[in-house]
Amino acid sequence: MAIADILRKTVAASLTSLYGQDFTGSDFQVNQTKPEFEGDYTIVLFSLVKRIKKSPDQCGNELGAYLLQQHPDLFSGFNTIKGFLNLSISNGFWLDVLTQNFADASFGRTPAGKGKVMVEYSSPNTNKPLHLGHLRNNFLGWSTAAILEADGQQVVKTCIANDRGIHICKSMIAWQLFANGATPASTGTKGDHFVGDYYVLFGTELKKQVDELVAGGMDKEEAEKQAPIMQQAQQMLVDWEAGKPEVIALWKKMNSWVYEGFETTYKRIGSDFDKTYYESETYLLGKDLVETGLAKGVFFQKEDGSVWIDLTAEGLDQKIVRRRDGTAVYITQDIGLAVRKHEEFGCDKSIYVVGNEQDYHFKVLKLICQKLHLPDADNIYHLSYGMVELPGGRMKTREGTVVDADDIIDEMVKVAREKTEELGKVKDFTPAELTELYDIIGLGALKFFLLRVDPKKKMLFNPEESIDFHGFTGPFIQYTHARIKSILRREMPGPANISTPLLPLEKDLLVAMEQYPSVIEQAAASFDPSLVANYAYSVAKTFNSFVTEHKVLAAETEEKKQLRLRLCQMTANVIASAMQLLGIRVPERM
RNA sequence: GGCCCGGUAGCUCAGUUGAAUAGAGCAACUGCCUUCUAAGCAGUAGGUCAUUGGUUUGAAUCCAAUCCGGGUCACCA
Fold first, then answer.
1. Res A466: pLDDT
2. Which residue is nearest to nucleotide B71 (CA to C1')?
3. Nucleotide nearest to A518 (CA to C1')
4. What is the mean pLDDT of chain A?
């Protein structure tokens, strides 16, 4: 049990026996003691004053003395200052934490057995390449899954390929019109970029046609509908749903190019899935459910044949679930997918990692599923994350203001190489080892940068300033790990019986590491990898302070050396473990 | 306009369930590499926690109003 929980329990029990009323752990706050005061953990007494009817200081002194007397193994002292009871935890407790866990690489993790959860992430459109926003999604999804697993849950990672719909038809039409049979192979272009270029081309051509129509006196909204290229795209979607062979063939061909490109990128960033769903396979099930809902009266049909749900009673609007021409919309397939997921895996919770611009969509989706009485409807959880913005504002593919995923990865790896060469510490590495190291550092920097921020909040990426390998960054933590390994390569902990008093910096480290299991638990409960990132950073920082102040191999005594070697090993384990939860590898040397 | 989210140092961000003098990193400045990796450490400077009012022994945190920014309300996804 975590020390904070032990304190909560112990203090509640002590209060109960001291004052003859029932107290629970939530009647008071347990904080880490601020550095300027003596002690390790602090009980905030103000909330108790009303019930006990004594001054905070008197209460603190009574409670402190009682705790010390009842639990001499756990506490070594206390002081009460202005309503705060500062407790010193005994040396022995911290040494126990160390000796029990220093060699355990799985320290902090809970064995499986807490239920089953599905994490859907990535969810790309197969008409354009991935950009920085998709990377945030992938890193967040992968890391959340890893954290849930470390928390003892069985995790199923899924991906939905949004491989059908009007947006796909746009790339296809543009390719038909302008490509003259060109392919990724014939142009030497990565498949997803190749198709993305035609998506952009569609937009350019559409704008041209709209401008012409507007010049001819049509209003803009109407022109966008009437533009020939748009009509062609819409016709193509109808043909696609009707299964017209040449359309299906083209669609398969272009999607296969995109998948090939995605595969390369996924491999590079380490995204993997237990199951990939395709919208082209789930939308029909969704359309069936629309029929069912129509029969049940959950949906209603308008005169033009389009099908809707009325959510005005829930404070939302009416939402279309099937177009006038009978084709499916975005949300149609999501309804089908929810059912498919349940049939196949039946999880206790179904998490969708999708940007916060779709908050409304998921609110509607959940409501629709509930109204249809679909199983697991209540278990839908939208893990909504903020957009990645550039100094000039949002990224928009159509406007070309995106940071391409492949480009930014290459750039980070390049900077990692330059920086490493500059420092010249690994000149004996083979070329293969160097390539791997640059990947570890470059991707580590990128992943850490995107994961260290609260997922819910939008974040800013400034290409000029955001690529940094110092301070609160992935490479800083990787570097700390490499330094520890450098010590451990010279000597590993040997047998020892340690009872030496802990110096402040030694204890700070143990206090930090003792919190690791709670950090995982909290990160899992709130689906928030940034807690793990912040934690890993604070552990690394604490270690660096310790190691510059105290020698390990040349410690004052053999016992001290053994103590510090254990601290080194445990810190390296915790850092490596926490970084693994973020999908970041740590090097032995750098 | 309705609904949702946000506003903390020059910049990027922490600050879980209210508590002690609001913390990091970057940028700026000062020190520290003949001894375990200086991608490091120690320090200086930098704040009206958007504004106003309220609740409380105590508010960056809770409530209300206002101002500012973003998202969304598509027969796009």
1. 82
2. A357
3. B16
4. 94
The two tokens of residue A182 are: 């060109």
The CB density around residue A109, as the number of other CB atoms within 10 Å, is 17
Instruction: Confirm whether any atom of chain B, the nucleic acid strand, is less than 7 Å from CB of A420.
Output: yes
Does nucleic acid strand B have an atom less than 7 angstroms from the CB of A356? yes
Cα A39 → chain centroid: 35
Closest of A82, A36, A85, A47 to residue A64, by C-alpha: A85
- Length reported for chain A: 590
Handedness of CA A223, A225, A228, A233 (dihedral sign): positive
Q: pTM, whole model, 2 decimals? A: 0.96
Average of pLDDT values for A231-239?
A: 93
**A399 pLDDT exceeds 80?**
no
**Nucleic strand B contact set for A 519-538 (CB, < 7 Å):** 522, 530-531, 534, 537
Q: How confident is the model at residue A322 (pLDDT cuts 50, 70, 90)?
A: very high
Q: Look-up: residue for tokens 């980070």?
A: A412
Q: Is the pLDDT of residue A52 over 90?
A: no
Q: What are the structure tokens assigned to A117, written together?
A: 């959860």
Residue A313 confidence (pLDDT): 85
Residue A162, CB, less than 7 Å from strand B?
yes
* Two tokens, residue A250: 């083209």
Q: Which residues in A406-508 belong to E strands, given as ranges?
A: 459-460
Nucleotide with C1' nearest the A363 CA: B4
Q: CA A258, CA A309: separation in Å to the nearest integer? A: 34
ipTM rounded to 2 decimals: 0.96
Q: Is the CB of A320 under 7 A from strand B?
A: yes
Which residues, listed in sequence order, are joined to residue A78 by a DSSP beta bridge? A87
Q: Band the pLDDT of A67: cuts 50, 70, 90.
A: very high
The C1' atom of B59 and the CA atom of A2 lie apart, in whole Å, by 29
**Closest nucleotide to A304 by C1' from CA:** B75
- The answer to whether A396 CB sits below 7 Å from nucleic acid chain B is no
| A56 contacts A82 by C-beta, under 8 angstroms | yes
Strand B bases near protein CB (under 7 Å) are 3-6, 11-17, 19-21, 24-27, 35-42, 57-58, 70-77
Provide, rounded to the nearest whole percent, the portion of chain A with pLDDT above 70: 100
Residue A397 has pLDDT above 80, yes or no: no
- Closest nucleotide to A389: CA versus each C1': B70
Query: Residue A86 pairs with which residues in a beta bridge?
Result: A42, A79
A214 contact partners, CB below 8 Å, separation of at least 6 = A220, A223
Helix (H) or strand (E) holding A460: strand A459-460
Mean pLDDT value across residues A73-79: 95
Which pLDDT score is estimated for A393?
A: 83
Q: How confident is the model at residue A566 (pLDDT cuts 50, 70, 90)?
A: very high
